[in-house]
Structures
1.
Amino acid sequence: MKLEYLRELMVLAKHKNYTRAAEELYLTQPALSKHIDLMEKELGTCLVRRNTHQVELTEDGQEAVKAFQKMIRLYDNYVSDLEQKRTGLQGMLRIGMLYYTIQQDLGKALPAFRKQYPKVTVQTISGQPQEIYQALIDEKIDLGVLPPANYPHSDIMMFHVFARTGASVMLAADHPLSEKEFVTLEELTDETFILLKDDPYTTLFINEALARCSFTPKKTAEADHIDTVPFTILETGGIHINGSGFTIPGYEDEIRVIPIQTDGLYFEKAFCWCKANQNPTIPVFLQSLPSFYANYNH
């Protein structure tokens, strides 16, 4: 069976339509249909059901797609490895970044990696934690910058922690604690903790960090978005906890950021990727990180 036929089935499974699949593959529709027929005859089973509107994969077809995806990935990685031996590391690395800490997380590491491996094409996207995580699940990116936490399906993920910081609290400049050099969690017991309505993953890793200290907020409120947290603080008199030094520009006169000194309270950042992703640029990129993050942890 030709490898090209396996790839063609992948495209057909994506579009569920012979015409659109053939267009993407630069094939005629009859040629694509013939290739699928040949696969079915060789395998001795029906892979697709055809009707006037779309193509549906049979149960065997669905299993075949899963198996062929793995085979193609292994083959492509092997070819890439051979090419690397001849010409040096090359390929594509897709990285998802938290939009509000891009410079802090990748400002030095990414330009250096691009300089050292000019044949690797690096593509980046930015977003909030749940957007980055979903892009990993959907295989739209290879690596994502995320705080490690017990996310849905985290058992299929790997986390490479590159930074650990303490915690700080954002509160209004006229808050009774605003002039303190530092505070403890105990001093925040009766405060209203502001969580994020559209970002449940940030709420998850913050709550997990608090749980390590056996602390559960008594009262909570919600901000629509991370960028509206200062406004919600001023409106409700609540507080927001995040990693040390985290702040949102434009509210320097109205908002104070104060360190929290409580044993066991910290936040981590990690590069996250799917265990099944065998992209050879991932381990090379991770191996280049230590020198760039030596001064990140604090």
2.
Amino acid sequence: MGQPPMGPGPGGPGAFGPAQGGPGGFPAQGPGGFPPQGGFGQDGFGQGGFGQDGFGQGGFGQDGFGQGGFGPAYSGPDSFGPAGMEAERQDAASEPLWKTLAAIGVAAVIGVGVAFVIYAFQGDKAGGSSSAKPTASPSSSAKAAAVKKAAHVQAVAIDKVLDASKPSRGKLQQGLNMMRPPCAKAEQGIAAIQQAADQRAEQVQQAKKLKVGAIEGGDELKRQLVTALLNSQRADDAYLKWAQKYQANGCSGATVGDADYNAGNAASKSATTAKAAFVDLWGPIAEREGLPARSQGVI
């Protein structure tokens, strides 16, 4: 079916014509709403629609979003203008003084702490404070005690060798005296000298086996003792040869001037020199360890 052409509407000559505010169109709302001429022409989007009375001064203007609506809250002098910024500065200036003082105090404490750490670190690198005294650890104390005990044991062993050397010297002197003319006890004299030489040889071996690592200066002490005993043994051997030869000649012949007798004297002199050096080293050690001091005449 055909549709009749659109004619004049109820509100006037056209559907969107200039006059719709009559009785047949949109009723008049007054100045605050849509104007009586409300359309889409000059009276629709113009001054009467979105103009001064619609979205203009009456809508979004001074009465809408302007001074009467949302004006003072966003664009007025009290919000984003100079007066607003001045108010914010006054609020910031009115912060309590204690906050500033607290911040300064915290910074000072941090500064002192950092300075103390740096000073302590430098003190450690420099070897620490002069008043700090290192304390011995339990392990080091135990080690020192063990070394001290070992030194005493080693010193006692040396002292025993010295005790054995004294009667050997006496035995030699006894044998040489028996060889004097008329050599009535020549056989006993030769036996005594032989016994002394045998004892010396044993003492030399004992001295060589001594442990002296825990004794301060122990190596030199041992060297001098071994030298003294070894030269004493050589002297005994030389005197023994002379005595046997002297007896064979009927207790006649040279004493001083004989090769063996002279060799005995030379070895005895070397032994005396080593004994003197040993005694000098032994004295402080014997005193520290509670042992008797010695002289070269009793070694």
3.
Amino acid sequence: MCGIDYEANYTPANYKQQSIMFMQTISDAYGINRCMLPISIRQLQVFESVARHLNHSRAAAELYLSQPAVSMQIKQTEAAVGLPLFEQVGKKLHLTAAGSELLHYARAMLQLMQEMESAFDEMKGLERGHLNISVVSTANYFMPQLLAKFIQAHPKIQVSLSVANRDAVIKQLADNSADLAIMGQPPDGTDMRAQAFMQNPLVVIAAPTHPLTRANKIQPKQLASETFLLREQGSGTRGVVERFFASHKLALPKHMAMDTNEAIKQSVQAGMGIGIISSHAIEMELETNRLTVLNVEHFPIVRHWYIVQRKDKRPSTAAHEFERFLLEESQNMVAQVNSSTAHRKQSKT
């Protein structure tokens, strides 16, 4: 075996770290030269993290390692491969051709490891594991409430939550750093599976003192002269707004781009313009009369929230359970929102 005595190297202390026998099996499956190994599972984890962040410090923080330990693991991996995996250009780190190739295999191997652990947990009847969830920023207004219930019901499942814009969330799915994602507009293509689980109404908002608050059945062309406060390019909400005006043969009105919903809400309250935003993001502001929903024809635009997963990734037990949980709990949330909306309408009359 390329001069390596695997049985002589085996001890309970180093077996999990080295994982040599497992790596040999994977190398056969993927056609990798055995003589390149041993590369440990831990080294693959370190390499994948550095390749994803292109930063040793961030990888060290993510893996709870020191930066020198990360650098040492990368050097050992490069020695095993026999080629440089990264190159420094100025202050930026870049993958080499060999690094890009290894990243492809590393992610496939790490995914297989996760699937294997999940399969064994299912056989043992254990409800535990890790669940990495990535959500678009608007979903973060309701996701913590749902996660709190899920964690209370499943305390042995370790949950990690990442909040980003749509493009970043899709990248996390593609990079296999997220088990599933929550977003309002699933990506195009056939490599993702999307399951709708809750409505996501988009509404037009203004400050309570805005002249349009006194108008009924506002036509889209009446909005053309207003200043809009919109999300940045790449946001799902921004795409809906652009398609709405295009469908009415109107140019996108004068607007300012903002990268958070909070910035939009604060700016609308200050009278800088009007906005289009998910109703899930403004419940508190409506309750306290800091914002008003305008009565615009063709609004609300009812979209849906989706659970998005990779088709080529076997969902873990934790991911299966969380999907089932979301489908059940979302119905309760819709009932609560409808009740709250009816209460506000009654209060106004």
4.
Amino acid sequence: MEENKNKEGDSQNQSNNLTDDDSIILNSSMNEIQETNNKQQELTDNKTETKNMEVHHHPHTERKKFKHYLFEFFMLFLAVFCGFLAEYQLEHVIEHQKEKQYIESLISDLQDDVKSLDLQIDDEQRGIGELDSLIYLLDDAGLAKQKGDDLYYFGRMGPRSKPFSNNNRTFDQLRNSGGFRLIRKTNCSNQIMGYYGQFSEIRLLEDNYNHEFDNYKKVAAKIFDPGILRRQEDTNGEIFRSNDNPQLRTYDSELLKELSFHALQMNGSRRSRLAELKQLKASALQLQATLQKDYQLQ
């Protein structure tokens, strides 16, 4: 009996030992299966995520029709064209404003010229009258001895002349900066050029007169007494007529006639210049009226 019990006990112990080993093996197998399932799940998840990303970055879009492209091109062209028109219109407005400013400035210059021309014309007429009187007195030595006061005064004041100074500020700006292209009205542009073109003739007459005056002074130095000329000046440099009948250095008829000849030449130049100045004034007034009318300026 005891032996049977011992055998049964050994059998039971062996059975228990086998059961523990099997449990270990079973657990190990289950862990491997679980790890394998986890790896397969991770791979499946990664593939799904990758597929979703591909779908997200490469969506399927409907192809645009030709009309849509044509419409986009038309809208782009219209935007560029409208921008060009706006820029052109702005430039046009700016040029018109500059043109008006130039015309207003030019009218102001013409008004200054007219005032200066009035003074210059008066001075030329005065000088012509005094030279006429000087020529008359020099023609007769006996009369010259009686009219010493007039001879000294006319001999000094008659030849005096100053060049005409005009205001060409705006004209120079138009010419140097290419501003004449802004003057849209052809008749105005032509009149402007015609007016300022007259100054070359006046400058030529002034140069000729200065040459004649130099010749006059060479002969006058032999006839007029410089002490008496000095005595006829006041502290301000103004010349006044004496009243004591001063005498000339000489009454040689040949010298008097030579001086008279030079005075006659100068008087002819002054008469020519007077005619040019009157014509210039008429042109200035006409140009001023044309600009005010065409550009509606007061």
